[in-house]
Amino acid sequence: MLIFIFSCSPSIESSYGVLGIDLGNAHSCLYTSDIVDCWGGNLSGESNGRPINAQDISLGAYHSCVLSPRGTISCWGNNASGQLESTDRVYSSFSCGGNQCCGVSNEDVFCWGVGFDNSFSFTQQIRNVSVGSGHACILSTQGEISCWGNEFFGITDAPSGTYVQISSGDYHSCALSQEGEIVCWGDNQYEQSTPPSGVFVDISMGSFHGCGFQENGDGVCWGWNQHGQTNIPDQKWYGISAGGYHSCGIVQEGWVECWGQNSVGQLDVPSEYHE
């Protein structure tokens, strides 16, 4: 569910200071240069933001984690499956999903949480990792994808080809090709693995839906829409993230807008980050 912001995305200059955003099942977090701010569900403290210098952020179902500029990971929220217990290493990137997380350290991937209490070594250098609910995928610096974990719905059957981004939902994953085409695999019960055509620069997968936007900033979401999570507002986007049953994005003016289910305030963006 992690948001990635690429250099080909539209530039952003504003007083809001939002650098990135990610969503869990029913909570949302963003980070600026000196704080992580969260809102929504908070049964396990997953929305307890904190003053911290974050380089990246990733949320699981009911927990939140940040990557510091030093490469260390700190987490808070639900720890029933050990999903807060990151290994003491220096990471270049990481991802959380469901009740687990994985981080990239050199050519190794270290995972923690339910079903992922192990490490994996790869012969190629790894650009980043994306974690779903019981499965994970890595994207190598050569653009190749490898997946492991639960094999339901063919979720570990990664496509061949060369890609620049990958994002995993609960039981499906999508990747962005060098040409900007979205390619998806896994569960397609709600057409979450049937992406729109077009040339995209950023994508994010939620539990059973996905969102993305094109170079001109136009956005689109697809998949399950019971709560309006694919009813993307008419904005020009700089970043986007799909969660459990809601979605949020950063508009090119720099503020955050959310849509979909709002059962516990997961759409209620703090006023300082919202127009």
How much β-strand is present in the residues? 35-45%
Number of DSSP-assigned strands: 22
pLDDT < 50 runs, ≥5 residues: 2-11
CATH fold assignment = Methylamine Dehydrogenase, Chain H
Quick overview:
The protein has about 280 residues and is mainly β.
What does this protein look like?
With about 280 residues, the protein is an all-beta fold. It has a single domain, classed as Regulator of chromosome condensation 1/beta-lactamase-inhibitor protein II (Methylamine Dehydrogenase, Chain H, 7 Propeller). About 0% of the residues lie in helices and about 40% in strands. It is built from no helices and 22 strands. The strands form seven sheets. The protein has a four-stranded antiparallel beta sheet, with no helix packed on it. A hairpin with a 3-residue loop joins β4 and β5. The N terminus is likely disordered.
Descriptive labels:
275 residues; mainly beta; Methylamine Dehydrogenase, Chain H; three-stranded antiparallel β-sheet; 22 strands; 0% helix
